[in-house]
Amino acid sequence: MNTNSNTYTVIYSIILVVVVAAVLAFTAMTLQPKQETNVKVETISKILTTAGLYNTEMEMSNDDILRTYSENIEEAVVVNFEGEVISKMNTDEGKIEIKGQSDLKAQNDLMKKINAGDASAKSKLELPVYIFNLNGEKITVVPCYGAGLWGPIWGYLAFDKDMNTINGAVFDHKGETPGLGAEIATDWFCNNFKGKKIHNAQNEFVSIKVVKGGASEEDINGVDAISGGTITSAALEKAIDMWLRFYVPYFNTQLSQAECTCTQAAAENVETVNNVEE
Amino acid sequence: MNDVNLKETLLNPIFKGNPISVLVLGICSALAVTVQLKGAFVMALSVIAVTGLSSLVVSLLRNTIPNRIRIIVQLVVVALMVILVDQLLKAFAYSISKTLSVYIGLIITNCIVMGRIEAFALGNKPFASFVDGLGNGAGYGLILVIVAFFRELLGSGTLFGFQIIPEKLYELGYMNNGLMILPPMALILLGCIIWVQRSIQKDLQEK
Fold first, then answer.
1. Which DSSP category does B69 fall into?
2. Closest of A171, A163, A121, A179 to residue A146, by C-alpha
């Protein structure tokens, strides 16, 4: 047979491509559920790390991570621009719903639009909040997302019940420079954020500043920048600032609610005391 | 060329005709994925699988491939194998697949794979081609693991992620060599390996 004729060549290439495409499509479809779980588990492990429930040395299986999440989470909600809860995400093991990378990117684009003066984007904003209950202490975990030097950077911040003090932070990146910008994913940098506050002494929102040359001990709103990783540090500062600004309404409603229940409880206490006296 | 010595086919590319240290092919990925031994190990296994299987498939097809689209057919076969490996890693070894990132996909462009298909698989029987692919993949992997061994040990003080250099030494003032983590050091190490090999095998030295 003449393997050099035009007809043969065309038919040969068509068959080859169809066969290869079929094999690839089959593999992709078979492995897709497993790959998606992997991505989801990674995000959940980041959220758990932020809340102080997980670290990479614990070597948990995927199932263990999902279980830890389900057992410790109080609720996972979605809030709107006004800071009102608009829906709840499922937290049952096996049916866990979270907002993944692509959702964060979409929200990030909306935030940019809002900041540019596009009011119509406000109604579309859907921000995830993960609330954990650790031995009675309420921990609120919120994400942030932005553009680094070479690609996206993102992370999670955990807040104490005062919605001001940072309890934990985890950051990650797609492809920042190793040894420089990539340091944002290391423990020393993330631990930097612990105990810092997003409001200043006058109770104004100031976010967290990444201070070049190192933040002073008394600086409650600043963390050490990465030497040599200036652009990534600055990009992270911007991302945190932009995202937290949109979470402040929610934080404030939470705080006033907490105050309400406290005063109510206090009032009830007073009543019981009065009753006893009577 | 029908009677190829299988043992020779397998072992020659590992030492005497090593694709990296003698032919100096596939350097870029060798520099990129050798910061840690674990990554280098998985990369080595992936390349062995890709070179072996694509040589096998091309050799099976060798009498049917139209000569004019030969290279494209080879490329399609190599790409198929690489994507399969990538998909499997993403499903079963997600964290490693993340550290290797684009370099698994870039096996497609690794000159060793195409080079062996052109030079060997097109003219030899399937099993011999398969063995040749495995041998070349192993030769590549061996260098990768050697480079990664030194880079991880001297750069991070660990091997496979376990602390090897004792904490006491750090207290005495020992520090990890930061240069080891960066790509230039991999190139220097590679140079050292080639130097050692050429002083052992005198016939490799140019006059």
1. G
2. A171
Report chain A residues whose CB lies below 8 A from the CB of B72: 13
Domain borders along chain A are 37-269
- Burial (0-12, 13-18, 19+ Cβ within 10 Å), A216: exposed
In sequence order, what E strands does chain A have? 73-79, 85-89, 127-134, 137-147, 152-159, 166-173, 209-211, 222-224
| Residue A182 pLDDT | 83
DSSP state of A226: P
* Model pTM above 0.80: no
Optimal mutation site among A35, A42, A49, interface B, most CBs of chain B within 10 A: A35
The answer to whether the complex's ipTM is over 0.85 is no
Using DSSP's 3-state secondary structure scheme, residue A38 falls into helix
Q: Quote the CA–CA distance of A68 and A85 in Å, as a whole number.
A: 24
Min Cα distance B128 → chain A (Å) is 23
**Vertex A230: Cα angle to B181 and A154 (nearest 5):** 80
Contact A27/B84, CB-based, under 8 Å?
yes
Mean pLDDT of B158-166: 83
SS3 A137: strand
Burial of A72 (0-12, 13-18, 19+ CB in 10 A): middle
Q: Are strands A222-224 and A209-211 parallel, antiparallel or unpaired?
A: parallel
Distance CA A23, CA A13 (A): 15
- Amino acid letter, B153: L
Q: Which are the contacts of B122, defined by CB distance < 8 A and separation ≥ 6?
A: B58, B59, B62, B65, B70
pLDDT digits (tens, 9 = 90+) for B91-108: 988 888 887 877 888 888
